[in-house]
Design a protein that fits this description.
Layout (H helix, E strand, L loop, with lengths): L1 H33 L7 E5 L6 E7 L9 E7 L12 E4 L31 H11 L15 H9 L1 H17 L17 H13 L14 H25 L14
Antiparallel strand pairs: 1-2, 2-3, 3-4
Length: 258
């Protein structure tokens, strides 16, 4: 009986390991495809030490939240992608919005995904929804059914006060831009002259050249360094464009959709 119990235990452990390995592999495939479908203005990179924690940033170019640069994390449960296994998006700075919990800065997914269907919903679906909330002008009529009832109440009854709160969270996102979260794979540094040189080199790399195929099998470390460099350069371009814009006066009723 003892031997049989041990064999059954080992079989269960093996099945669990295989199941989790397949989920991890599926997540890798999803990220690979997501890179080609992620909404514009959003950049995401997995944590190098924790593959089920991703770090991202969204640049807002229009609407009430324009010029905001909001960094966030995506925490993916081990059972993802299964029915009911929602990913969790948490902003690193305050986002005053009816669909963001004020205490935790977590994005409320239920308004868009009442149930999580693995055949229909993926992380890129959440990113599309996340971007859309910064341009939304319609919310649930019941303040008890939104993450931040105060934000919804101000949006409807006191739009000027709502805009003031939005301006404050946009400014906070810029103030905290260079405060990098521990372990984050996306890191921001204040612009220096060397960044422009790197930017130009990066743009040149986008042009095909014979030397582009000289190194066909880069090491994992080289791939990691290239990914981080490219992500940071693109983010710097977004930041430069963001800072160059001079925002006009904000009006709640004239919030343009992107």
């Amino acid at each position: 009986m003892t031997d049989r119990h041990a064999e059954n235990s080992q079989l269960t452990d093996l099945q669990t390991y295989r199941s989790q390995t397949m989920k991890d592999y599926g997540l890798m495939i999803e990220y690979k495809h997501m890179k080609h479908h992620v909404p514009s203005g959003i950049y995401v990179l997995p944590n190098f030490d924790e593959p089920r924690v991703w770090h991202g940033v969204i640049f807002i170019h229009q609407g009430l939240y324009r010029n905001g640069i909001f960094k966030f994390s995506i925490k993916i449960p081990e059972q993802y992608n299964a029915t009911g296994t929602y990913p969790k998006i948490t902003f690193y700075s305050k986002v005053f919005h009816p669909y963001v919990y004020p205490e935790s800065n977590d994005l409320d997914l239920l308004p868009k995904f009442p149930t999580w269907d693995p055949d229909l919903h993926y992380i890129v679906s959440v990113l599309v929804y996340m971007k859309s909330i910064f341009y939304s002008k319609e919310f649930s009529p019941d303040v008890r059914r939104v993450a931040n009832g105060k934000a919804l109440d101000l949006f409807r009854r006191h739009p000027e006060a709502y805009v003031e709160q939005v301006d404050a969270c946009v400014q906070a996102s810029l103030t905290n831009l260079y405060q990098n979260e521990p372990g984050s794979s996306l890191r921001f540094t204040k612009p220096i002259p060397a960044h422009e040189t790197l930017r130009q080199e990066f743009l040149q790399q986008l042009e095909p050249s014979p030397s582009a195929f000289a190194h066909e099998n880069p090491s994992a470390e080289e791939q990691r360094e290239e990914t981080v460099t490219n992500m940071n350069d693109v983010a710097l371009d977004e930041l430069a464009n963001q800072q160059a814009d001079r925002p006009p006066e904000r009006e709640v009723m004239d919030d343009p959709m992107e």
